[in-house]
Amino acid sequence: MEAAPTTITVQVKFAGRTIPVEVPAAASGAELKRLLQPLTNVLPRGQRLICKGKVLQDAASLSSMQVVGGSKVMLIASQGLHQGDGPITNNSSSSATTVRRPSNVKENQTQKPEVVVTKSRSERWKLTGVVALQDCDLKVIPEEVWDCGTSIRILDISYNCIKEIPHKISALKSLNKLLLTENDIVDDSICWEGLSCLQKLLNLSLSENRLVSLPPTLGSLTSLRELCVAKNRLDNLPVEIGLLKHLQVLIANNNRITSLPSSIGDCESLTVVHLSSNLLTELPETFANLRNLKQRFSKSARSLLHWISMAQKSQMMFFDRWRGGKSSTSGGGRNIRSSSTSVLAHLVCSMKARMMIIGEGDCLKIVSIILCYDISPKEP
């Protein structure tokens, strides 16, 4: 009986071409993907392999999925950030870098040319407009990035060890999305003058770095839609943030922010704001101007808001009783009622924003908000 072959050759169809790939007969779907990376410049996580109408699973063997010698496999590559840059290591096996012809091809079968990938990564970046270099253990941004100039729309260099964003960033004038999450960036190592030239920038992520402050130059990024600066060491936000009229998402949780500028109320397009896990004890009155904020409250929070609203509508005198039980018919009582009703009206307007931004997790936070208005019971 003829021994089973140790290797098989599968025909991988990709981008209108057929790539013959020789793999061990006992290989898994994941191993096939790794062999295809240097041939297609698509990272394994961005590959979807289909054979006989079924998606090949990474953990399963090719034989268990009925992939044999001569089988045709279709490769579908995820677009955008899943595009790779060729082999990750320099010690790739020869089978991963060499395209071999099947040994049992019939003589009368049409011979197809071998596929040779020759495009450099900078050429691919220019073609797709996407530079995906996340989690590559980079310490500096490669010079090839700057050479791409206005071709680049998305630059993702998150999860690296980058310490400097130089003035050369200004060359990427078509940049829409700049992701710098989890690097080693400090205040002095980022050239905000260069960033201010990116007038088409819509999304800026600087989360999980070592920033202590944001400069006034931030206000020049007037096209910005989303700003993420979570998990830094910020103690405030610049007054110029109010110039970001199109800002819709502000993520600044897990910092050391103690107060917000009143200009935050000028960011009229804001729909999502995360400021939890900071040192905030008060929000500016202008926060009530942010009428597009999404309201997401728990049942208990909604009940409290309903209680406060009902108190305002019926003009209850509980504040009068708190402040010494003065009669509403006395002059002092009327003044107290007027003052309390005004405070209560403002409280209703801002309570929603407060619970949404600071957090509604427990009653103590809400009580602390109420105490900020000095409407707690007076000691006799």
Short account of what is shown:
Belongs to the SHOC2 family. The chain has 9 helices and 12 strands.
How many strands?
A: 12
Rg computed from alpha carbons, rounded to a whole number of angstroms: 30 Å
Structural class: alpha/beta
Instruction: Give the overall silhouette.
Output: elongated
Low-confidence stretches: 85-118, 296-302, 315-346, 356-380
Largest sheet: 7 strands, parallel
Average predicted confidence as pLDDT:
75
CATH topology of the largest domain: Leucine-rich repeat, LRR (right-handed beta-alpha superhelix)
Q: For the largest sheet, list the strands in their spatial order.
A: 6-7-8-9-10-11-12
Order of helices and strands, N to C?
A: EEHEEEHHEHEEHEEEEHHHH
So, CATH architecture of the largest domain? Alpha-Beta Horseshoe
Report helical residue fraction.
10-25%
CATH superfamily caption of the largest domain: Ribonuclease Inhibitor
| Tally of domains | 3
State the helix count: 9
Write down the CATH class of the largest domain.
Alpha Beta
How does the SSE layout of this entry go?
Layout: E1 7-14, E2 17-24, H1 29-40, E3 47-51, E4 54-55, E5 72-77, H2 94-97, H3 121-128, E6 130-132, H4 143-147, E7 154-156, E8 177-179, H5 192-195, E9 203-205, E10 226-228, E11 249-251, E12 272-274, H6 299-314, H7 318-322, H8 331-358, H9 363-371
Parallel strand pairs: 1-5, 6-7, 7-8, 8-9, 9-10, 10-11, 11-12
Antiparallel strand pairs: 1-2, 3-4, 3-5
Helix pairs in contact: 6-8, 8-9
